[in-house]
User: Fold this.
Amino acid sequence: MNNNIQTPNNQTTNQQVEAPFDPKTVQPAVIGELRKDRIGKPILVLEMLVMFGIVLIALPLVYTIANDEKSFVYKWLHKDVVVVDEPEPTETKYLDGSTYQLLDTSTNMKYNGIVIQAFKLNESTINCRIFSLNEKIDFDEEEYYLEIYSNSLEKIAAIKLSGIYDFTPKDTILTAGGLTFNTNFKYFGKMVKMTDATYPDITYTKNEQEIGSFVCSNNNHIIKYTFKNDYLLSIEETYKFVKSDYDDSAYLELYSEYQTKSTNLGAGVSSTEEDADGFTFKASLDLEHGYMIPETVTDNNYYEKDSKAKVIHYAETGKGFDCK
Assistant:
């Protein structure tokens, strides 16, 4: 019996035998990559928000500059467009009203915040506009005058400013006693605020008791002022209104106004009497014996007791009265 085992002819005899598996020889293999930037970066989000905010703020600014005709950017974008810069507003220039100024339509003079402008000289009056730059001013409680000078700077009149003025320019007519203008000459004016020391002294007839008076007249308006030692004692007034000088409505309005004035002054002190020609207003104010002018009566020809004669004379002359 043959015990030798023969290899079948159909099997390969040179087949290699694999070595045993050794885990130490295994090399790592990359099967994927974890990207950290996919997790998110907070600082990047913050930067984007800041950039977005800058764009929101910058866009309106850029738009404004690009549409500003005075800006460099606008001029660069519109090289072919001629841009005319608008002049800056200038402050109104006023002449010094405390010194001589030519009285004509272009004159614009100021003194202590009071403006007088646009002078037009007529035969014996001055048309002008007056207003206050500060606040409302009542000239009847102040001693402001417009002094008028000839071409040789000789003073020919002093016009008392009266009435109430504020910021709104008011057309005004000024005149003084004996004032006349010659169209062939130039005239000058300046504004002054009188004080007790600057009023000129006057002379009028007095008796042995130093009592005297002068009368101020202007057409049909006559006022007598009586003084003692140059201090006011009494006022007597007569004012004749001729009906033909007014239309019916104006006459009736005046008549009613002076009737009311008579009532306010008091019985026995004043009267308003009508006649065929019109009416006459009369008043006799005895300040020496305690009569006081009521607050309901406003009249810039009335003065308080002990007002000085030279002040009244200067003021009434400056209103157009002839006082002597």
